[in-house]
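User:
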Amino acid sequence: MYITLNLLSEIMSKAKSILFALLAAAFYAINVPLSKLLLNHVGPTTMAALLYLGAGVGIGIMYLSSSQQGEKLSKNDLPFVIGMIVLDIAAPIFLMLGISFGSSSNASLLGNFEIVATTVIALLLFKETVTKCLWGAIVLITTSSILLSFEGTESFSFSLGSLFVLLAAYAGVSKTTAPELFPPKAHIRSSC
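Assistant: Predicted structure:
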């Protein structure tokens, strides 16, 4: 009987995790098209601020309902925390500017460039090994990102919106893929 209850508990825990992952994916998927619609009524920086206000309210509710307390940050952590805050502010502003100057479908597809940004940072900063399969994916994603960044076949002018989306990808990845540059205490608190 104990094994059955333990197994049932484990299955419920996995189902809950899968549900949260699906919800996160759904919210991520509707973020760009919904932001494009809302950018018709508010500016890019205001939109980025509203996104962070919503995230702050959600994290605040989670913090108040949680009994766990994290480590306190020290003065030595301050430069790293400031760096993460600056990147946290820059990334959504770049993304909203990219969405406002370009199409939402282009911005959504260029969001996949985060994979390339993560890999490049891991390779250059942390000397991570990159497999042949991952190199193939990087080439395909980079090629598609280059093709998406041009405004059309009749002109080879670069899309300003694409540039901002790519900057958002690098700013977002830079703060989350560098635990050696950002101490673990600050890294964990920032990733909320």
